[in-house]
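Dihydrofolate synthase/folylpolyglutamate synthase: structure, please.
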Amino acid sequence: MIDAQLGVETALKRFERYNPKDRILALDRLLVVLEELGNPHLDLPPVIHVGGTNGKGSTVAFIRAIAEAAGLSVHTSTSPHLVRFNERIRLAGQLIEDDYLVSCLERVEAALKGHRQITHFEAAQAASFLAFHETPADLLILEVGLGGRYDASNVIEAAACSVFCPIDLDHQAFLGDTITKIATDKAGILKPGCPAVSAIQTKEAKAALEAEAARTGNEIDFLTPDDLALIQPPLGLWGEHQFSNAALAAKALKAANIQGITPEAIAQGAASARWPARMQRLSTGPVTALAGEKPVWLDGGHNPHAGRALSAVLDTLDSEEPAKRTMLVSAMLANKDARGFFAALNRPGLSVFTCPIDNNENSFTPEELANAAREAGAGADAHQSFHAAMEAAREAGAERILICGSLYLAGKVLAQNDELPD
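Here you go.
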């Protein structure tokens, strides 16, 4: 038995012994375990399944906020977490409690019978399905973890709506090295006869989605200017791109035929949505003190699409506070397109101060990341700690600091600044 007092992290660590050595993306392992658990994934509230590359978390936040504004009880499944694993599983609006999460994980481990293989993510998804099955709610928002077709979330047999956020290059080692290959994999969440909606996509991504929809007998309803016109300020999330995410959220709820999604609920939900580390201005705390109390913003974006979105946000900030010079403090996982990210920011005189992600062997070294930034045309200095990078940016005259490049870094920053997601 797993002792609940040992905590969630201890319970999760036990699954390391079951991790497969190959075929990380697969569904058969998880389906065997779920069958042993009584197939909880087949008896859930109506599911809105959210895939894509960029904006998934923000879109989930908008869907949840709008649905809750309509008086609905909502589960959410998201990843990765920033500070606490419990952030991944929200039951009827509240983060799952430690004891209940450990209990669900314990039942998953028992279903493995000591010899079956399962990835850490699959085990967590199985535990979440148990919790979603056992806790009443009106709606479940299920975010895809990686790709689509073979993602652990894709064991569900039907969806009230499949949602495609903007698709871009990411996780190429698993999904393929072109937009077409990646979009085709992500289109694997389509379920025959189930509604589907999509953000505005590139030509290649749109063609791949439509080809898969034709194969499965679906039609995908793409975002239109009329959809965007329904979303008016204020928004709870910062950035012009968030209007598209909010519009996609409202479109998904309508396509899913969720009751009570009135213009009033859409406006209230769009204004109240919150999602940490997505252009989040940090409150006064230990991290902002490192910046000499200058404004510090935090964003987990880490690919070219996110870089373009951040550039647009900085343009808006500059128009409102033109005297403020922005500098970046950045760390990034080594499997990301660092050069593409910095190039997409496309800002004259950009200064980047790189650092490692503590206790993460899969991140770029500060020197490697600084070289990538220089190749993209930015000035860059490498530092051996986050604190050193922050202090260097302050001493270089930063009047605004944007911490970006990794959700793992973002989580550590939130923890250091005493801003735990709730």
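Notes: Residues 152 and 350 are 39 Å apart (CA to CA).
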